[in-house]
Write a structure and sequence with these properties.
2 copies of one chain form a homodimer. Chain A has 465 residues and is an alpha/beta fold. The first copy, chain A, has 2 domains: 68 residues, Up-down Bundle (dopa decarboxylase, N-terminal domain), CATH 1.20.1340.10; 266 residues, Type I PLP-dependent aspartate aminotransferase-like (Major domain) (Aspartate Aminotransferase, domain 2, 3-Layer(aba) Sandwich), CATH 3.40.640. In chain A, 42% of the residues lie in helices and 12% in strands. Chain A has 15 helices and 11 strands. The first copy, chain A, has a 7-stranded mixed beta sheet, with helices on both faces. In chain A, strands 8-9-11-10 form a 4-stranded antiparallel beta sheet. The termini of chain A are far apart. The model of chain A has no long low-confidence stretch (mean pLDDT 97). The interface between A and B is large, with 156 and 155 residues.
């Protein structure tokens, strides 16, 4: 494709996306296709000769769109959002166009330095403690997801807990990880991948707000120590997936400090709220954490994938992950004056993902980001008020931010039926969880283009059953 | 950003990329900035109010471009390529615009089904054995990089070698991995992350073509068994990073089968060549492999990140990585009729990366891809001939594909000086390795827009010293 062809087809692709976003509310939010329906429309063999770009674009409409669940629909209230925005899409486009691979500082200094800089901006925006910034002992890096960040935290914690022995000789003694019963499934996945084993993950009880009980954590640690096991890491959650519960990081952090245990704080969704001073209390106690992550690809209008992972001390992370073959040696790395982010995560290669985050922060400005976050929280609170006022429904958990957990009082079957009706209608998309064993609907207000009107209409549909 | 603003700014971004690609040869291929130079141009704090898109675009020229090492320059001959192409950029753009998150089939069936289908296409294109296709016991998935694919292979092998015990109880006994001395650094990184420990990675000697010696592999396995250790995985390489050496997969595979050891084959760069029937011999013995990966983001004109990872049996991979919390349960998954790719890699969330690969295969067609690969190989062979004919130079390794390893006969210092001169000139970018302890230049022909003229001029500059 020549540059001139790229100009022409690029405009077609841009227009296609703009048209898509304009008509997005015409599609069922949750794709209604049956398994295999999309594949059946694809030819069994790839074409021998190239096809015109117009044929490819046409298949987006004919084949792809029916199989899309529209995460960018303002009627998407399921899971946590994975939203995008114009500046983010265009930042990602420039990333693809430049096509740099920033495994080393030298292989594109701007890829590394813009990332370091924007992650320092983020640390200030979110009120993170000074040690997480690049001019201190720590620093931030963009990873794909919080799952990968959690894995890296576990590996660095393992390295520190065994003074490097597990990296050299393998995991040999029982290293224990702790998280609440409400923690994300990625903690167990990471514990497994890192060779600790699921049996060495303790699920700590929660209080009536679904937040980790520090007393139970302390008990579990004491039991493991008494049995000769090595407590290695606590994964606290600020904003759990089920109900945005906030673990008490200050108390958990004090225990971790006393015990010399790595504290990782997963604020994948909720961390973004700390852009607003009135929500910065979410980050209380973070000065006691060894690592932290937040996903701008969830609630900060930056398209997937973009997880910001911070460490208070970069040394154990780099020691755990750095392997330096001859073919990557270069004068800049040897000078010690640069960051080579390849040592901060599992992949060697890396995209210029900082561009999209940089574009988003500059396009919206801090005030623009704050306004959107405040609106989402306010509408979720308003929605929670409607639920509370309707005698058929009950709130299933407190609503600290933008997620409302609620249910019909009638019981699990009625709630499953309600969810099936709503999602089958194509008008809205909600997801579910279980709280205290009860089937519970989750209504998360966080899509970039959701307005109060969308929230109002969603509630009308929920009540209409 | 409204859809209309997106149309306008989208065109600006498309034009900026097209202009960039037109003038790319005006920039020094290797960025010439000093550490900190890019950051010094960035404001210490993010803007409170949003900025116009034009200001952001302007900074791409003023701040970012001087810090770019131009991977898309046709004069880029370093490392292995990470090339892009028009259809790939636009496929990635549509991915960002749709903004779907395909963790589950239900969260965008097209994201899963197009991926499965295109990975089956790839299996046919590359002549992979039938067990790697989705209608058999295995299947393919897109991961970010070969490093992550290797980690997943190690984790699945660990699961199989211990009948699931390491996943449950952690790594407790010495599990051993094997790779040649020339294998990629990601094997050691993966061995560490998975908790096996660097000491349990055996670097097997190579022959005079830098390919793994099967007799030495068999010896090492026998020694480990005798010592009570558990051989778990062999990572063979088809196209090593230093010199594109081809490990003898048929012989290695027979040993692995006899011994019940997982065989992973890393063909990150070289696998793409198998699109051409005359190079399909690269894949001899793959029917004995348990897993395999190739990176279209290297030599297949598909922008980073896009690694195709295949397993012959998906069961141990999924058993190792699947954790199912309530909030991800859904009727489609429970039907058993769909693939949920979240269980095929470490991250939970996932982009619609299959789009760019689908766009590339359709735009070029099989014949178009073959033509480009054949040209690159032919020009590299021609370059190798010029080196061989010049008495000042010597070839440092055989040239099976598109990478020429060569050096001045004068010794390491002269070669380091030559490399510094070339890369400092900004006219070309080469990287280096060590072979038999000697500093060796690597010249890889694989960038999308490289022509024979670029190769000719590069040789003129190399000779001119």
């Amino acid at each position: 494709m020549t540059p001139d062809e790229f100009r022409r087809h690029g405009r077609q692709a841009i227009d296609w996306i703009a048209d898509y976003l304009e008509r997005i509310e015409q599609f069922p939010v949750l794709s209604q296709v049956k398994p295999g329906e999309i594949r059946a429309k694809l030819p069994p063999k790839p074409p021998v000769e190239g096809e015109p770009f117009e044929a490819i674009l046409r298949d987006l409409d004919d084949i792809v769109l029916p199989g899309i669940t529209h995460w960018q629909s303002p009627n998407f209230f399921a899971f946590f959002p994975a939203n995008n925005s114009g500046p983010s899409i265009l930042g990602d486009l420039v990333c693809a166009g430049l096509g740099v691979q920033g495994m080393l500082w030298a292989t594109s200094p701007a890829c590394t330095e813009v990332e370091t800089h924007v992650l320092d901006w983020m640390a200030d925006l979110l009120g993170l403690p000074a040690q997480f910034k690049s001019d201190a002992t720590g620093g931030g890096v963009i990873q794909d997801t919080a799952s990968s960040a959690t894995l890296c935290a576990i590996v660095a914690a393992r390295e520190r807990a065994t003074s490097g022995r597990s990296n050299q000789s393998g995991v040999r003694s029982p290293l224990v990880a702790y998280a609440s019963t409400q923690a994300h499934s990625s903690v167990e996945k990471g514990v497994r991948v890192a060779g600790l084993g699921s049996e060495n993950l303790r699920f700590i009880d929660v209080d009536d707000r679904y937040a980790m009980r520090p007393d139970r954590l302390a008990d579990a640690i004491a039991q493991d120590r008494a049995a000769g096991r090595i407590p290695a890491i606590v994964c606290a959650t600020v904003g759990t997936t089920s109900s945005t519960a906030i673990d008490p990081v200050p108390e958990i952090g004090r225990i971790c400090r006393e015990q010399g245990i790595w504290l990782h704080v997963d604020a994948a969704l909720a961390g973004t709220a700390a852009i607003c001073p009135e929500f910065r209390h979410l980050h209380a106690g973070l000065e006691l954490a060894d690592s932290y992550c937040v996903n701008p690809h969830k609630w900060m209008f930056t398209n997937f994938d973009c997880d910001c992972f911070y460490v208070a001390d970069r040394a154990p992370l780099i020691r755990a992950l750095s392997v330096l073959p001859e073919y990557l040696r270069n004068r800049a790395s040897e000078s010690g004056a640069v960051i080579d982010y390849r040592d901060w995560h599992v992949p060697l290669g890396r995209r210029f993902r900082a561009l999209k985050l940089w574009f988003v922060i500059r396009w919206f400005g801090v005030a623009g980001l704050q306004q959107k976050i405040r609106q989402h929280v306010a509408w979720a609170q308003e929605f929670a008020g409607w639920v509370a006022a309707d005698p058929r429904f009950e709130l299933a958990a407190s609503v600290p931010l933008n997620l409302v957990c609620f249910r019909l009082r009638e019981g699990d079957e009625a709630n499953q039926r309600l969810l099936d009706r709503l999602n089958g209608s194509g008008q809205v998309y909600l997801s579910h969880t279980r709280l205290d064993g009860k089937f519970t609907l989750r209504f998360c207000v966080g899509q970039t283009n959701t307005t109060r009107g969308h929230v109002v209409r969603a509630w009308e549909q929920i009540r209409a059953g």
